[in-house]
Specification:
Blueprint lengths: L5 H12 L5 H8 L5 H8 L9 E5 L9 H19 L7 E6 L5 H14 L3 E5 L5 H10 L4 E5 L8 E7 L8 H12 L12 H6 L3 E4 L1 H13 L4 H6 L1 H5 L3 E6 L2 E6 L1
Parallel strand pairs: 2-3, 2-4, 3-6
Antiparallel strand pairs: 1-5, 4-5, 7-8
Helix pairs in contact: 1-3, 4-5, 4-7
């Protein structure tokens, strides 16, 4: 393998030699040995955690969205939560939702299992949910925080990871700075605390959310609508609306029908 910068070569070697990283991920990287430009892009930095969280192209590497970068971010978030929750009653908890992007369910479950490994109860929706419902549920269940796996309007090869506080809003700058500092302290994947799904469920550290939370959210939305009569009158039309996704010149576009 040639033409790699020293920094990238060191980062790549650390992934290839790390026993905590699965063989499929290592094979994905080995298949790029004749593509130094791609490896440079995947490893020249860690995927940046901003005020809103992570966002990047899905794939193996430190500058990509994958189960390892998600786990590292979650370990840092977990340590921030434990520090912030210190001295308070009860067990800290985090509500997790996700959208329908590639690997969103897998990334959401990975985050839940890392939280569980750190002694934080993960409350995970069984399938995709809208971000406003995550914010509502964080407050309704008096959770310590929230996570949404989504990349909003970005192209389909992207995914993201957004972090929320106990008020159901995204972290404000001083909170994000503390989480970022904790993430930077996670220097190896082997140091990430994680339970298996079976362990988390058996220990009550992974709780699945579904119909009850959906009904609670829908009731609040209906109760706070400005004109409930208009909403009821147009219910049939609203119910039949859907989002049509189609391809045009290789680009995903959408239209409400």
């Amino acid at each position: 393998m040639t033409e790699l910068s020293t920094n990238v070569r060191q980062r790549l070697d650390s992934w290839l030699q790390d026993p905590a990283i699965d063989e499929a991920t290592k094979q994905e990287l080995k298949q790029l040995e004749n593509n130094p430009a791609e490896l440079e892009d995947r490893f020249y930095r860690d995927l940046e955690f901003g005020t809103g969280g992570l966002r990047g192209v899905i794939g193996a590497g430190s500058n990509r969205m994958n189960r390892y970068t998600v786990a590292r971010a979650t370990q840092g978030f977990a340590e921030y939560i434990l520090q912030a929750h210190r001295g308070q009653e009860g067990q800290p908890s985090v509500v997790i939702a996700h959208d329908c992007r590639h690997f969103s369910p897998e990334f959401a479950l990975e985050a839940a299992l890392v939280l569980a490994g750190n002694g934080i109860v993960a409350k995970l929706f069984t399938s995709l949910r809208p971000t406003p419902q995550l914010s509502y549920t964080v407050r309704e269940l008096a959770a310590t925080g929230g996570i949404v796996v989504t990349a909003s309007h970005n192209p389909p090869e992207y995914n993201g990871y957004k972090v929320y506080n106990a008020f159901g809003g995204q972290l404000v700058p001083h909170e994000a700075e503390q989480v970022i500092a904790k993430i930077r302290e996670v220097t190896s994947f082997g140091g990430i605390k994680r339970l298996s799904r079976e362990e988390a469920e058996q220990q009550g550290m992974l709780i699945w959310l579904g119909e009850a939370e959906d009904e609670a959210f829908a009731e609040v939305v209906a109760a706070t609508s400005v004109n409930r009569e208009l909403m009821a009158a147009g219910a049939a039309r609203i119910w039949s609306s859907y989002l049509l996704l189609y391809m045009e010149q290789g680009i995903f576009r959408c239209a409400v029908c």
